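ASSEMBLY PREDICTION REQUEST
Request ID: AP-0331
Submitted by: J.K., bench scientist
Number of chains: two
Total residues: 864
Priority: normal
Notes: Please return the full assembly, not individual chains.
Input sequences:
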Amino acid sequence: MRIVKLTKETTENILENMLKRSPTQYGTYEASVQEIIENVKTRKDAAVFEYTEKFDHAVLDASTVEVTQEEIDEAYNIVDPELIGVIRRCMKNIREFHEKQKQNSWFTSTENGTMLGQKLTALNRVGVYVPGGKAAYPSSVLMNILPAKVAGVKEICMTTPCGRDGKVNPVVLAAAKEAGADRVFKIGGAQAIAALAYGTESIPKVDKIVGPGNIYVALAKKAVYGNVSIDSIAGPSEILVLADETANPRFVAADLLSQAEHDELASAILITTSQELAEKVSEEVDGFLKVLSRSDIISKSLDNFGYILVTDSHQEAIDTVDAIAPEHLEIVTKNPFEDMMKVHNAGAIFLGENSSEPLGDYFAGPNHILPTNGTAKFFSPLSVDDFVKKSSIIYYSREALSEIHEDIESFAKSESLTAHANSIAVRFEGEE
Amino acid sequence: MRIVKLTKETTENILENMLKRSPTQYGTYEASVQEIIENVKTRKDAAVFEYTEKFDHAVLDASTVEVTQEEIDEAYNIVDPELIGVIRRCMKNIREFHEKQKQNSWFTSTENGTMLGQKLTALNRVGVYVPGGKAAYPSSVLMNILPAKVAGVKEICMTTPCGRDGKVNPVVLAAAKEAGADRVFKIGGAQAIAALAYGTESIPKVDKIVGPGNIYVALAKKAVYGNVSIDSIAGPSEILVLADETANPRFVAADLLSQAEHDELASAILITTSQELAEKVSEEVDGFLKVLSRSDIISKSLDNFGYILVTDSHQEAIDTVDAIAPEHLEIVTKNPFEDMMKVHNAGAIFLGENSSEPLGDYFAGPNHILPTNGTAKFFSPLSVDDFVKKSSIIYYSREALSEIHEDIESFAKSESLTAHANSIAVRFEGEE
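STATUS: Completed
Returned structure:
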């Protein structure tokens, strides 16, 4: 792995290189995504099935697009019961963590008769996108569906592309059933996002679409945003390890590679003040590359977006973490808790040498759907909050309004909104 | 005002008509907005100043684009001190309500050494858009800035279009200063959104852009979403009054008109089971129209998007509220609190005959920047939550990891992610 001495210039070059991975930079795909969306919006099912045949090479119709109970039963017959056991243990942790995110409706009141508050309501129907393609990720099924379930969403519609045989990966199906998907559709890509956003004869319109996907899915989600809500625009995965001379280089190397294996756009970065650690990690990476099954992908991702950055000071290292705003941050230093307090921008922060990133991907409980590509500066992990919305509640008694009505009228008049002022004034007509 | 008997068909027609007001339906403006954004992204200040001259007829340069302390002092000299007093009393309520929205970072722990949590961090720099043009809205300045301030945002950059003389409305400036804007820029439109999203020589790049604006602003916010975060895509304002025979028709009429006066795309709707109330409200509306200063705008907005809907049943009325998902909902019935409990979708809910909508626009405390045009099905009022983001925190001790490491390895292998499995396995090398 390349070792780079960090300077202001190298930081800027690296940040610029990283941003090339952003879905919003891929202008060339936008026209075709827009065409797919328009087509699904107007021709509905017919367009969805045509695109599924074209892109996924699967022939579907209104009677086969939705997964049946028989197909779910079949999936359970295929999947190793021990894996179901693992899935259930993971689900317990994920559910427990997300239960803690639940917020209450609340109000305040005063004795002269004012009540102000915030009422929380779960979304009615959400769409959950689960990628298919290169690999099947049942863990993403759990991470998408469980927060919605905990929030109390009434209907969860999952979509995931099927294979040429019109079948969905059985582990994905079993995970969907375990997590509580109400309906599962066998479609993927921009056509699936468009179908969920506008509704077709077979696929119901939803209020929000969540879940990561490829570049077409990301751009389609952005295009339908406003008509429905979305969680965020996901880019390729990334890990940043902040480590000092106390870190175990073999663990650090293994963790870097765990993200690099996702795809060729994934990014793995080590930032350290220790030149010695830098060199040892680089060696360990080379060693692992000889034995890991996905070393082709890993090598490409490391060549493109992998760095070992050596900094002069610990503060400089922290500042670089904030500038990169990584999806996953591991802090493997003398005082990981103290360092965590200094960091502003990261999707998930893993503390200490035993908190390997895959612990969070599957088991610990916090969500693994996280802001990528610098968006941890302003986006958050997928959470129960994504599946509820708020309404403000305002009650004023006659007494309470009469005490302050003149302030409202003055303010409204200063904005030349005389009908606003009138709506208050009319309530005090004929009074002094 | 037209009175319509509600049937399934009329509901659908009305919903379709309402959605015509959505910024995302205005395909024709997207190309010009995209051109403005690309131009500002590459030519920065130069492009911003060209567009400001073209659209706002104001000549700005790097030395005049930002509001100076002298200009703020000048604004305070012009603005009526009594209005400053009103603004301060409103601010007190707005701040108090938003303080209640603040959430804590939290964690859970177990004795064998696991800590899981959620760390909240305020956004570093946000951009606040305040419309200029037809009217100046100092209340929007307060509603935009105060939640950011309460959240602890480090730098708040406000932009608002200036007049031909290069000056910003003095009340807007004074409100910005009172609320705590750190910097104020005299630009508006899509060029302002692009400048905040990408940064120019004079205008810093922000993490999130909030605040309502015209169609160009709405489309520009959507276009830059992903590169920065945004609050939502705002459309024209709307009010829905749910009332029964106990409602005062004069108050209802006045409240309907208070939203209709915003612009010709605004929508004012009454839903009631009482034909008698429907007729009386219609009469009162006609009466007010003769005396209100903005009756031209009001008449057009009522013709386009104003309805008095009469339903057979109270439940049908509630269902129609949910289908419309209004920005502002007034409930003026025998049991407004009970009816509120039945409603799922509304930005802000005003209870009882004294809780007139303008009370919420200015004074009560809850935010007046609300989801419009049906988006209350999935969006929330602007809040402190908009200005913080979360990072998950994960710590596992050696002991805790050793108890469950096999589950993680099994799950990772089931997804064919062998480097994920390896990052856990490597920590137990040489052990049984």
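REVIEWER COMMENTS: The CA atoms of residues 100 and 384 of chain A lie 9 Å apart.
SIGN-OFF: pending second reviewer
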